[in-house]
Write a structure and sequence with these properties.
Layout (H helix, E strand, L loop, with lengths): L18 H54 L10 E3 L3 E8 L2 E10 L2 E6 L6 H10 L10 E6 L1 E10 L4 E4 L6 E4 L35 E3 L4 E8 L8 E7 L4
Antiparallel strand pairs: 1-2, 2-3, 3-4, 4-5, 6-7, 6-10, 8-9, 10-11
C-alpha cells in the first residue's frame, strides 16, 4: 500500500439511503398525508352542515315572519269568514293597502304551501277568490312552497271571553248572522256559475260552505307544526300569535 502523498487528504466514502429506509419514509409521509386529508375533510363537512343548518333556520324564520304578518292583518269583512281552519287548510282575509286579500295555508304531501289572491275592493270579487281557495291544486299563480318535511299541523284559538285555548275546528264565539255568500255573476252566464261556465264547485270535490253564522275572530292563534325526518326543523314547533282587531 502506497503511503499518501504529501499534502493530499484521504477520500471519504459517501453513503446513501437504503431501499428499506426509503420505503419507511414514504410510509410515514403517506400516513401524515392521510391524517391531514381527514382533518381537512372534517372541516369542510362541518362547514357544509353548519351552512345547511343556517339556511334552514333562516328559511324557518322567514316563513314564521310571513305567518305572523298574515295573522296580524286578518280582517273580518262580514262577507266571507275572516279566519277559517278545516284541519287541512287555513283560509283568512287579510288587509292590504289595495283592498282585501284571501290567503290560504295548506299542508299537502308533507309540504306547507301558501296561496294568496290579488287584493280586491269589490264584494263579489272577494267572494269569488274565497271560493277559489277551495279549488287549489298547487300550480296556481301566487302559490309558494313554504316548508318541507311537515308531517302534521294543528291550530288552536284563544278567546278572552273564556280565557282558554280551544281546537280551531271546534265552534267559537259567534259574531251573529250574516247573509249567505252568493257567487259573483257576470253578463252572459247564469247565477252561481264559475267563469269557465261550470257550477261554483265544478271540478272540485270540496264545496265551499254557505256562510250563515260567522264566528268571531279569536284573540290569539297557536300553531303547532310537527316535522318528520328530513324536515326543515326537528320535533315540534309552537308559535303563538296575538290577533289585533281594528
Amino acid at each position: 500500500m502506497r503511503p499518501p502523498l504529501p499534502g493530499s487528504r484521504p477520500r471519504s466514502r459517501s453513503r446513501g439511503f437504503t431501499l428499506i429506509e426509503l420505503l419507511v419514509a414514504l410510509s410515514i409521509m403517506a400516513v401524515m398525508a392521510a391524517m391531514a386529508w381527514q382533518g381537512v375533510d372534517a372541516v369542510v363537512r362541518s362547514r357544509e352542515i353548519t351552512q345547511a343548518h343556517m339556511e334552514r333556520l333562516l328559511r324557518l324564520q322567514s316563513v314564521m315572519s310571513q305567518w305572523e304578518i298574515d295573522l296580524r292583518e286578518v280582517h273580518d269583512s262580514q262577507v266571507v269568514p275572516g279566519l277559517n281552519f278545516d284541519g287541512a287548510t287555513l283560509r283568512l282575509t287579510r288587509r292590504r293597502p289595495e283592498g282585501l286579500q284571501v290567503v290560504a295555508w295548506t299542508l299537502r304531501g308533507g309540504t306547507l304551501w301558501r296561496w294568496s289572491s290579488p287584493a280586491v275592493t269589490a264584494m263579489d270579487a272577494l267572494q269569488e277568490h274565497w271560493m277559489r281557495s277551495y279549488q287549489l291544486l298547487g300550480s296556481e299563480a301566487g302559490t309558494l312552497a313554504m316548508l318541507h318535511g311537515v308531517s302534521q299541523w294543528q291550530l288552536y284559538h284563544y278567546h278572552q271571553s273564556s280565557s282558554s285555548w280551544s281546537n280551531a275546528q271546534s265552534s267559537g264565539d259567534l259574531a251573529g248572522s250574516a247573509p249567505a255568500a252568493e257567487p259573483a255573476t257576470t253578463p252572459g252566464r247564469q247565477d252561481g256559475q264559475s267563469p269557465d261556465g261550470g257550477g261554483a264547485g265544478a271540478g272540485n270535490s270540496a264545496t265551499p260552505p254557505v256562510i250563515v253564522n260567522q264566528e268571531a275572530l279569536p284573540d290569539g292563534v297557536r300553531l303547532l307544526l310537527q316535522f318528520g325526518e328530513g324536515g326543515t326543523a326537528a320535533g315540534t314547533l309552537t308559535r303563538d300569535i296575538r290577533l289585533i282587531h281594528p
